[in-house]
Write a structure and sequence with these properties.
The protein contains five helices and 13 strands. The chain is an alpha/beta fold and 268 residues long. It has one domain: Rossmann fold (3-Layer(aba) Sandwich), CATH 3.40.50.1580. 45% of the residues are buried.
Amino acid sequence: MPPSASLGVLGGSGFYHFLDDVEQHTLDTPFGPPSAPVTFGRLHDRDVAFLPRHGAAHEHPPHRINYRANLWALHAFGVRRVLGPCAAGSLQPHVHPGDFVVCDQFVDRTWGRPGTFFDGPTANHVAFAEPYCPELRAALVAAARSREVRALDGGTVVVVQGPRFSTRAESRWHRAQGWEVVNMTQCPEAVLARELGMCYATVALITDYDAGIEDLDGAGPVSQETVFSISEENLGRLRQLLFTAIERIEPQDAASCACAAAPNGMVP
């Protein structure tokens, strides 16, 4: 009998395993293989699935991740509520490296990524004014407060194509719009989750000040080494935050959010 879990976690940069004592399972999808095998473990007396979006050894850069296969695989294994933590750069002086941001909006500046399950002949335009599940967001915010972790409740993440980092001009433009953080993976991941009727939320771990405001800490322009180093240093804090949040998350069938209704019965 195949494994099943109602809640899943997608790992980001530096985050390649989640639970101990896990079972590993592979699954092919209509969109090809996911980034890595899905692992299943127990936490707070419930089954939890985990999939590192970049692969087990970070072999998939953000613009080459098979987002459709990743979300399809989790859905096929029974996952209906997804936490998708990510690494992000700060665009604002009040958002510091080492902080967390529980985002409530995003701006998509990616291109060329397969971003929907509905390529035809069936059309389905999902409502997406609120891209992140309010119940999962609330669980993440409450978990941060209970652990006395500095976390901003709400913030806009601008999603850039990558794999390069922003120019100073791009970064200053993003900052001038009032957006809080910049990342490379939130889109189309959150969109695809909604198309499948899955609840989805992210918590962004701030690894650096982006190129337009890097003088705030005197570290110079952001580098891959900086991002990976800060991610590794804070991975324990992120895992503990997720452990606490998962304890607070109810199954989707007990939820009052509208995420599950988004596909209007048209899950592909």
